[in-house]
Write a structure and sequence with these properties.
single chain, D-Maltodextrin-Binding Protein, domain 2, six-stranded mixed beta sheet, 27% helix, 30% strand, binds phosphoribosyl ATP, binds zinc ion
């Protein structure tokens, strides 16, 4: 393959997003080898290489065109975009897809026992965060003047150390906040892992491969929740059974050899099939129910 036509996707080297980002690329058909401490993994069957970097560097690498695509948390992408806008530079990033993993929220949290009655309670207070641009943007939108204390880590202990009155940090389960006697009082941003590219003029290495990867990714994202359901149904109950099949528009209906009163029904359900649905289908007369996971799907 011609080296000059290769493109790169920026992925977190080691952290919460690494495994699920690499897994997504693998599900899109990318075969690559990965050695310990290697910064670039070369794709063996696509002109696509993986650049392994710190998540905070991914938006910048994508904007500059060092990577054509990147996978990072929306929190990191938005912080970078706002930072650029504050310097009068264009945001420069486009979110192509939400990837449905790495979910968390950027929250303001208050120490237990400290009153909070809305954003006005932050007026004149110190708020510690690693996301100063997202926090300042929130404060500005709510007409609040507060002092933003920028910390690169261990934000949750800032109130205990007397460095801040409140914090603004990422939360997923909330266990860390609880362990530090803090409670969530506002959500500034709902975040998840996203696929991004630049809106700046950079040499596009292979638009065709980018579009192809996105189509495959759509297929992967679509089947993640989807199931293939198979069952036998009395012809007389077909209407009721079709209505019960979650999200399926037109099931495939086939005759059953030697059973004129019955049919076999196959359907792709674009959402989870719950036990309750199977029980309802059974009550409607369905038998031999099978639910299978899907691996790949194209329209
Ligand atoms: O080294 P590098 O800079 O690449 O990694 P990092 O340390 O900056 O990032 P990392 O791996 O911790 O997180 C990468 C991304 O994962 C973040 O930018 C978010 O998009 C996403 N993510 C999802 C999270 C969390 N969930 C999360 N819980 N990032 C951080 N946390 C923190 C949270 O702030 C708390 O301190 O994890 C701790 C546990 O959270 P609780 O609420 O479950 O207790
Ligand atoms: Zn980071």
């Amino acid at each position: 393959m011609d080296k000059t036509l290769r493109m790169r996707v920026g992925v977190q080297k080691s952290g919460r997003l690494t495994d699920n980002s690499l897994d997504l690329l693998h599900r899109c058909g990318l075969v690559y080898s990965r050695a310990p401490d290697q910064l670039i993994c070369y794709g063996e069957n696509m002109p696509l290489d993986i650049l392994l970097v710190r998540d905070d560097d991914i938006p910048g690498l994508v904007i500059e065109g060092a990577c054509q695509l990147g996978i990072a948390g929306l929190n990191v992408v938005e912080e970078h975009r706002l930072e650029r806008l504050s310097r009068g530079e264009p945001g420069g990033l486009e979110v192509l897809r939400n990837l449905g993993v790495g979910q968390c929220r950027l929250c303001i949290a208050a120490p237990e026992g400290v009153a909070y009655e809305g954003p006005a309670s932050l007026e004149g207070k110190k708020v510690a965060t690693s996301y100063p641009f997202l926090l300042r943007d929130y404060l500005r939108r709510n007409n609040v003047e507060a002092q933003v204390v920028v910390l690169s880590g261990a934000v949750e202990i800032a109130p205990k150390l007397g460095k801040a009155d409140f914090i603004c940090d990422l939360v997923s389960t909330g266990v860390t906040l609880a362990a530090n006697h803090l409670r969530e009082v506002e959500t500034i941003l709902e975040s998840q892992s996203v696929l991004l590219r630049t809106t700046m003029e950079v040499p596009v290495v292979s638009e065709e491969w980018i579009q192809r990867l996105i189509r495959r990714l759509d297929g992967v994202l679509q089947v993640r929740e989807s199931k293939y359901i198979m069952l036998h149904a009395p012809r007389a109950a077909m209407k009721e059974i079709s209505d019960l099949l979650p999200g399926s528009e037109a099931p495939t209906v086939m005759p059953l050899e030697g059973r004129p009163d019955k049919v076999a029904v196959h359907a792709v359900c674009p959402e989870e099939v719950f036990w309750e649905t199977l029980e309802a289908l059974q009550s409607a007369g369905a038998t031999s129910l099978l639910v299978l996971p899907l691996e790949k799907m194209l329209p």
